[in-house]
Amino acid sequence: MCTNEDRINYLDHAATTPVREDVLEKMLPYFTQKFGNPSSLYALAGEARYGIDEAREQVAEVLGARAAEIVFTGGGSESDNTAIKGVAAARALSSARSPSNGHIITTAIEHHAVIHPVEQLEKMGYASTVIGVDSTGRVDPGEYAAAVRPNTFLASVMLVNNEVGTIQDVSEISRQVREAADRAGTSVMVHTDAVQAAGKLSLNVDDLGVDLMSLSGHKIYGPKG
Description:
The chain is an alpha/beta fold. It is built from seven helices and seven strands; from the N terminus they run ββαααβαβαβαβαβ.
């Protein structure tokens, strides 16, 4: 970042962005006038609930998803943790399987928000396979899919790397993972950390072939989180 008196030349938009004026204008009423608890029944709460529901509809339209599938969290890292630990918890509750029967696939260049929850699940008894990358930072879809086992239930791969900018072929990875899962007689949920891709690439969940996607507003001129 270079400063010249009161002028700032900001060169780190890949890390975080300022809130756009029109975004701030839309948000201010919910800080000052429509601040009710959206889970309550009074009129002020209804205005807050309407704002949240409208935001869900708008996000869902961009992603090609349903509004009911949109979950707002405190940020990208919380979204990654919620996706990975949530799928593991749902699997355990629905099938009464022990952690030792669960297997996760991810890559060597994921964000720590993916690596750390996978490591935590390993301590609980889950197994994981970490797929390496080539000299350009890309994952080989065939190698990734070859890691699928009969007990694999989750595959996580970042769409755009936050350090080197490598774009993974998530749609092809997902396609091959699902084919491998069919052969193995299992079902695999596919998650992508698309935080760094927002605002730069198309993020249609069907086109990417993913079940879960993590995003963060502060990367695209929204509020922190």
